[in-house]
Amino acid sequence: MSTSPLIRGYEVVIGLENHVQLSTQSKIFSGSSTAFGAEPNTQASAVDLALPGTLPVLNRGAVERAIRFGLAVGAKVAPLSIFARKNYFYPDLPKGYQISQFEIPVVQGGQVEFYLGDVKKTVQLTRAHLEEDAGKSLHEDFHGQSGIDLNRAGTPLLEIVSEPDMRSGAEAAEYAKTLHALVMWLGICDGNMQEGSFRCDVNVSVRRPGEPYGTRREIKNLNSFRNLVQAVDYEVNWQIDELEDGRKIGQATVLFNPDTGETRAMRSKEDSADYRYFPDPDLPPLVIAPEWIARVRGEMPELPRAMAARFIAEDGLPPYDATMMTQSLAFARYYEVARGVCGQPKLVANWVMGEIAKRLNAGESDIADAPVQPATLGALINRIQDGTISNNAARQVFEALWTGEATEVDAVIEAKGLKQMNDSGALEAIVDEVIAANPKSVEEYRAGKDKAFNALVGQIMKASKGKANPAQASEILKRKI
Fold this sequence. Notes:
By secondary structure, the chain is an alpha+beta fold. The chain is built from 15 helices and 17 strands. It folds into 3 domains: about 280 residues, no CATH class; about 110 residues, no CATH class; about 55 residues, Arc Repressor Mutant, subunit A (Orthogonal Bundle).
């Protein structure tokens, strides 16, 4: 179980429930389209509304995506699982119940590994079960009334439930990011959080160390990782304030307002008994034969953990670097292309985790949208390795490429005059001039002061207007003094 420093003397306990919209073209129990953005109520069939005389038929593609996820996280894929009716009344649930799985889910157990900083974390999964989505209530442009859009009703979801293993908002966000990257890597979800394809519900409680779990409150429908961190941090401090003032925490469902940065209670939280689950009489048990699992396994892409292990074994990357290079399929592909061009795995990883990550984070963008193509980065690293440019100059070239000033590495080097001075005769002349102009530094170096040597190299770089090859200049300087 994860641990972290206490907050105001309390331990934070966090578990996540992630609703992942599966990437099927049709709904989980009908042939209706799942395409986003259609006019309200144009993609809701009689089956989605459970009109009399209709029967649900399970979407095989949704099941295969659940199997793929279960295999990826090392879970048990149940040979037999049951669909149940979860009964509750809400305007956007026209059936009066939601078809879900309760006692016997399709995916049982598993774990997700990720890094928080450079510390490896592991979160255990309780389950992942198939279910249908509800519709959506609309509260704008209806002259003070609410509208109902049932296009989402019946959309296939995989609800992934973690154990309460996380101890901070930052840790919960890293777990969610890893899960988000994994379902996209597997091709079972498009990951579009703004369209509701990947939604986070966060259960938060606090307790004194060693005490039983506190009463949890569930923050619903967080649609960004930044909001997740802010919501958890606010909720944690709110709960601690309540306890410190002598009040009890009531189990509740709460919403987060990103404009105010605050959570507020929406309704008291139900327990599972309140939903009166019972097996759906219209759906037989879901039977998954070993042959089906074997076929799905054979069609799986190389998983992030396996790819990271390969990068460690074949490329010599440190474990942290390998994990960062496999944080998403786009990152892995970027790394592989760049490494293939320059043959320098560690240098590629350094650039991706350094200059590229810094700019991506600043722009809140994905590596797939990086202006510098991976082959271009490989070409830039080649020019550093063959001594054409210095590391300093390489950063100038990279800046020009990133901002769109140019697209070719060599063109930027020529245009900006960044080529290193590799002519030994010219370099020797500069070194001689620097030695003659700095006798005190020369004597200090000879007396054992290494800083004096660095100062002399700095003078050489200055005299050459930054074009001297530092390694070559150092070698000549050492030979001469």
